[in-house]
Design a protein that fits this description.
The complex is a heterodimer of chains A (480) and B (221). Chain A is mostly helical and 480 residues long. In chain A, 78% of the residues lie in helices and 1% in strands. In chain A, strand 1 and strand 2 form a beta hairpin. In chain A, helix 4 packs parallel to helix 10. Chain A is globular, with a radius of gyration of 21 Å. The two termini of chain A are 33 Å apart. Chain B has one domain. The chains are: A mainly alpha (480), B mainly alpha (221).
Chain lengths: 480, 221
Amino acid sequence: MVLGLPLLGAFLLALFGARRYAAELNAGMSFSTLVAVSFLVLRVLRHGPLLALHEQFFVDSFNVFLVALTAFVGFTTALFSRPYMRIEEQRGRLNPQRLRLYHSMYQLFMAAMFLALLTNNMGLLWVAMEAATLSTVLLVSLYRTRASLEAAWKYFILCGVGIAQALFGTILLYFAAEHVLGREGMTALLWTHLNAVKGHLEPRVLGLAFVFFLVGYGTKVGLAPLHNWLPDAHAEGPTPVSAVLSGLLLNVALYAVIRCKVLVEGSIGSYLPGHMLMGFGLLSAVLGAFFLWRQRDIKRLFAYSSIEHMGIITFAFGIGGPIANFAALLHMTVHSLTKSSIFFTAGHASQTADTQQMAGIRGLVGVSPTIGWGLMLGSIAILGMPPFGVFASEFLILTTAMREHPWTTPFLLIALGVAFAAIFRKVQPMVFGESNAPPLPHSPALAPVFVHLAIVLMLGVYIPFALAEWYRAAALLIGG
Amino acid sequence: MHPSHLTAALLKLLAASLLLISFAMLSRRRTQRLITLFAWQGAVLFMSTLLVAHSAGLRELYYSAALTLLLKVIALPWILHRLIHRLGAQWDSETLVNIPTTMLVGLGLVIFAFGLAHPISRMATTITRNTIGIALAIIFLAFLMMITRRKAVTQVIGFLAMENGLFFAATSATYGMPMVIELGIALDLLVGFFILGIFFFQIREQFDSLDLSNMEALKED
C-alpha cells in the first residue's frame, strides 16, 4: 500500500504532469501516502513488528519511525513545491515538460526510499538505494545549466562508484550468510534471518563487508572524505529536491549503514564498526563546520551544515548504547524537519532576491516577514539554541560522549562552535537590513516551515510519552 | 583428466583473460577500441558464467548468463557505438597521463586485491574460489580507469567494467546472487545507462565537448 501509492503517483504524473493541476496531484498523492503510512504506524505500535509478503518486507520500531518521517516531510515538501515551481516556471527556468519530469521523478524517488526503508532483503535495499540515486540525478540536472549538469554528473559518478562498493559488501554478506543459512528458500539475504544467526557469521568476511558498506552507503550519507557531491547537488538542484535530499535521502542512507552495523557488530563481537562510525562522523562534523566559513551560496551553506549534522548523528550511532542511539534518532528527526524548513525559506529567499549568493540577499524581513522570520528561526533551531529539539539531542550526544569517550568532546565543541559562528554571522544580515526587492508573484506556502519548526520546538520542550517509548524501543533494537 | 579439473582449469584461463582485458582497457586511447574491449570482457564473462552454471548445475545461473549476453555483449556495446557515432566522437582519443605509471599502479592494485581476497577464498566452497581475487582486481582496475580518464564516455565504460567485476565476484564467490536481486541490478544498470546517454547530449549541448576537464566550475575556492 505504502509502496504502491507513490508508484501510482509517478505513473499518473508522468501522464498528466504537464497540466495545471499536476502540483496539486503531487501533493494529493503524497498526502494519501502519508495516510497509508499512519495506518501502518498504528498497526506496528499496537501489534509490534510486522513481516509481509514472504518476509520480503518488514517493519520494526526502527524503520517505522523513519517511514513516518519520510512520508511527512515528503508531503510538506510537495505542498511547498507547488508555489515554488510555479514561480520558477514563470521566470522561464522550467517548461511544462521538465515540470512533468520533476513531478513524476519526485514520486518515484519517494517510492524508492520507502522500498529501501521497508525491505527486509539486503539485496533489495541496494537496488532501492540505486533507484533513489538514479531518480534524483535527473532532478538535480532539471535546470540543464552548465553548473547543474556538472553537479549531476559528479553526483552520479561518485554515488555510482560508492554504491558499487556497497554491492560488493552485499555480495560478501551473502557469501558469509550462505554458509550458515544455505541457498534454499532465499533467506540468506533477509535481515531478520541474518540478525538471528549473526553470531555464527564469519567475522573476518563480515568485517571486510562492513568496510565496503560504510564506504558505499557512507558516500550517500555525505561522510567526510566522500562528501564532494553533496554541496553541488544541493545547490544546483531545485530547492524542493535539496530539501528532500538533505532531510530524507541522507537519513535513508544512514539507515542502511546502521542496519549493517547491527549485523556486523553482532558477528565480530568488538566495537570496531562503532569506532569506524565515530571516526568518520567526527571528521565530517569538524570538516563540515569549517567549510561553512567559506560559503557564499546560501544553499551550499546549508548543505555543509547537513554534512556537519550527519557527522554528529553518525558519531552518536557509533558510540552506541541506549542513550546515544536515542539521541541520534531524535537528532535525525529534528535535523530533517529543521533542515527541510530552512531549505524552503532559503529557496524563497533566493527567489525574492533573484540570486543564491548570500551577498545579494538582504533585508528579508522587510520584503516578506514570514520568509525572514522563518529563515531566522530555522537557523536558530539548527544551531541548537535551547528551546528547540536540536539542543536536546545535541546536549544528550555531548554528555554521552563526555562520559564514554572524553577525548572527543573538544572536537564536537569546536564543530558546534564554529558552525554557530559561521551560520549566525551569515544569516543575520540576510534577514535584517534594507532591501528593495519586489515581493514574489505567487504567495509562498510557508505553513510547512512553521509546522516543522513547531514540532521541533515541541520535541525540545517535551517529548510525548508514546514517541519517547518508540525511540527507546528503536534505540534498544540498534543496541551497540 | 577429470572433467571438473578441466572446468577449473578453463575457468582460471577465462579469469586470467578477464584480467588481461582490464589491463588492455587501461592502456587504450581510442574510445571505439575501448567499447570493443568492453564487449569482449562481457563475452568472456558470459562464457565463464555458462561454465560455472554447467559444472554446478544451477538453472538460475543460466538465466544470468543469458542476461549477461543480452545486456553486456550485445545491447550496451551496440548502444555505445551508436551513441559515439551520433556524437561524432568515434575517432576521439585522449592523452593519457602516463601509461607505464598507470600500469604499475594497476599491478600494485592486483597484488592488494589478492591479499584482501585471501581469507575469503580460503572459506569458499565453490570451484571458482581462486578467482575471487581476480574479480576484486578487476573492480579496482576499473576504478583506476575512471580516475585517470577525463572523457565522459570512457568514465562510463569504466563504470560498466566495474559492474562486470562485481558480477564476476558474485558468481565466483557464491554462484550468483538470488535471481530477484540480479534482475534488480540489471534494471538499475540499464536505467542508469540510459540516463547517462541523455546526459551525453546535454553535456555536449552545454559544453560543446564531452571532455570533463571543462567541468571545473563547482569547486571550493
